[in-house]
Amino acid sequence: MVEPTASTHISEGQEGGEQQQEEQQRVLPEVQIVPHRLLSEKTGMKLVEELKTVGLVSRVAYAGPGDTIGYIWVEVFGFHEKTMERIRAACDKYLPFGYDLSVGRFTKYRKTVSDYIREDMMRRLREKLAELAEKGGEGEEKEEGRR
User: Fold this and answer.
1) 7: nearest Cα among 28, 23, 18, 19
2) pTM for this one?
3) Same-domain check for residues 44 and 81
C-alpha cells in the first residue's frame, strides 16, 4: 500500500520553509473499526484503551450517537501486519459479535476551506458582539444619567 502524503513543493532558499515543511508531513494511515453493533461507552472505552497499547499507534478516535460508539479510528505510524494482528486480537476480545476493518484515511488531517471560512465567520461574529456590548454599556450609562 502506498501511503498518501500532503505535500507542498519547497524550493531551496524559499521564505517560510519551516511552515511549509510542517505541511509536508506524512499523512498517517488509519485503521477503521466498524462494530456490527453499537458499543456501550463502557465496552467501547475498554477497547479504545487496549488499542492505545498496540505498538506503532499514534492516536485513537471514536464516534457514535449519544453514549454509544459506532466507529473507531486507529492512526498508525505505518501499515505493518503485526500491528494489524494486535488490532484484530483486541477487536476479537471486545467485539465477539463481529466487526469490519478497513485501512485508509478516514478523519481530517488538515483544515479544509470550510474550516477557514467558519473560523473567519466566528471571528467576525465575536468582533461584532464585542462592538455591540461596548455600545450597549455606553447606552446604559447615558440612560442612568437621565433618571
Assistant:
1) 23
2) 0.63
3) yes
User: Tens-of-pLDDT digits for all 147 residues of the chain?
Assistant: 333 333 222 222 333 444 444 444 678 889 999 999 999 999 999 999 999 999 889 999 999 999 999 999 999 987 788 999 999 999 999 999 999 999 999 888 888 999 999 999 999 999 999 999 988 866 555 555 555
Q: Which residues pair with 127 in a beta bridge?
A: none
Report the candidate in 102, 89, 94 with the shortest Cα–Cα distance to residue 32: 102
Residues belonging to the chain: 147
Number of domains within the chain:
2
C-alpha separations of 83 from 49, 74, 91, 113 in Å = 15, 11, 12, 34
For residue 141, the enclosing domain spans: 111-147
**CA 47 to CA 44: how far, in whole Å?**
5
